[in-house]
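ENTRY TYPE: paired fold submission
RECORD: A
CONTENT: sequence, then structure tokens
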Amino acid sequence: MTLLNILLHPDPRLKKLCDPVARITPDIETLAADMLATMYDAPGVGLAAPQVGVMSRLFVMDCNKDPEAAPDPVVMLNPEITWRSEALNTYEEGCLSIPDQYADVTRPAEVRVSWLGLDGKSHERDFEGLWATCAQHEIDHLDGKLFIDYLSAMKRQMITRRMVKLKREKARA
């Protein structure tokens, strides 16, 4: 497995709509495995393909934060939210493409997601809590939307300025 470079905001690729995955190929299987390795290494609970520069509707997540429990990775190709609860949940979100920046985002507390698995079969599952927040956050990435897009313009600009500064510092290092 290869650890992939995670794009940092602002990067125009993070704001683009991703194309559906046409079929499951060895390259897609390798990408999913590499994305899981990258996500666990970061460490994070979700990672979308555009965050590693691949403009395909694919993301990985594992919101099992119990260190005693076995990993519970989920790989979703062409995911779609088919139902959202009316009940809302506010969660302090972060993003591997916007490191060390966090903000409260309110989203539906529960969602039902359908997707194509690496097994070639259709899957559907209800998610709640952190799993629901993460699925919505990652699907947003596939639609060119970042969690900071839910914030006020002032707060979004402040975070973007910090990220521009971080990218300059990394470029000098």
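RECORD: B
CONTENT: sequence, then structure tokens
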Amino acid sequence: MRQHLRALRASIPVILHLARQDLIDRHSGSLLGATWTFIGPLVNILVFVLVFSRIMGAKLEGFGAEIDQYSYSIYLICGVLAWAAFANSLARITNLFRDQSNLVTKVNISLLALPLAVLLAETIVYAISMCFFIGFLVLIDFPITLYWLGVPLIFALQCASVYAVGLGLAIMAVYLKDIKEVVAVVLQVWFWITPIVYVPQIIPPWALPWMQLNPFYTLVNSYRDLIMYQRLPDLSHIALFALVTAGVLSLSLWLLGRTERDLRDCL
């Protein structure tokens, strides 16, 4: 473990460079360049607000605030922004070692550092989106409370879970090419079995206990508790989520330790 930590510290400049290059490469060659990093999140927020609140007129009951016109948009944005960061990070980390095979085989870089560069880039995009989200909430006089301080903590836990799962998948994807396609399909199904665009109340009562086993169910509820309902999320569920994340991370680190030398050769 100490050896891994030393390797990570030595790789910090590389992580920062890769994250910066990742954001640049997304829109390289375009006329507006890095400006698209801000335009994309802004357009998403506007679509969620204008389409789902004004055109569709969707509302949630029992919201607890006099802003029914925008209630569904707030509900939706809380979940969609977090899911986008989660799904994009996991999908990209899964195939990361293959995508960066030239770097992995030619440069003595810690394999633990590469997923961090992806997470950092996606965190920047998420932070930009949340800034626009906060601006929207301020415009409609929605209260911004101290509970918002818990949002970065939940997002950090989300990133830790993506890192733990993604690292293991990235290792397996070196040997099994189908892993990338499997993850893409699973993410599609996962989105729809999570109450991101719908409320849990429409789910049959017998199915709710099964839905609560969904790890992202805990995350999306935590975001909504902090942002929408101005209350603390269920700490027992968060603690269990953190415990499972630690277990998966330990398993992924063990797998990397057993396969790292062969993994570099396979690439």
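NOTES ON RECORD B: The longest helix spans residues 235-266. The CA atoms of residues 94 and 166 lie 5 Å apart.
STATUS: closed
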